[in-house]
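Let us walk through a complete example step by step. Step one is to write down the protein sequence. Step two is to encode the small molecule, zinc ion, as a SMILES string so that its atoms and bonds are unambiguous. Step three, shown after the inputs, is the structure prediction itself.
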Amino acid sequence: MGIVTPTPLTTVTDRDLEVLAEQLGRVPRGVVGIAARCVCGRPLVVRTAPRLDDGTPFPTTYYLTCPPAVAAVSTLEASGLMNDLTARLADEPDLADAYQRAHEAYLADREELGHVEEIAGISAGGMPTRVKCLHVLSGHALAAGPGVNPIGDEVLTLIADTWRQDRCTC
Ligand SMILES: [Zn+2]
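Step three: the predicted structure of the complex.
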């Protein structure tokens, strides 16, 4: 008997793929890892290849899949928060700088998975100068941990009453 190595949390299992199909209502495409999990172990954010099998460039490296989290973020988006946040980037240089670094971190993570010329330098969610998709930004925050994506971190704080990573609502 050798030492049993536990399956890394980021590894995609067949069970994960089943859960993802349930969460998304379709066969998940281009999944290369699980970037964040709920406390129950189900996938929360998937890491996706920058080019899908059919050749399509796919800029959204971190994709939020957990339905209650997606719903909580959708509710926030419906309030029109993206315009307010975009305006704040113009007024708050520290926030703008941190958001620029988040953009660069996102691109660096994606580059690890391969270089795709069509989307080179283009991240996701509106980064680095606009706030367009709170699902993308909160997905990045969950994947990267606190302190990397300031807008994503703020979104997670704003939805904490309805959804939190440490309290399963799957
Ligand atoms: Zn759960």
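Step four is interpretation. The first helix runs from residue 14 to 24.
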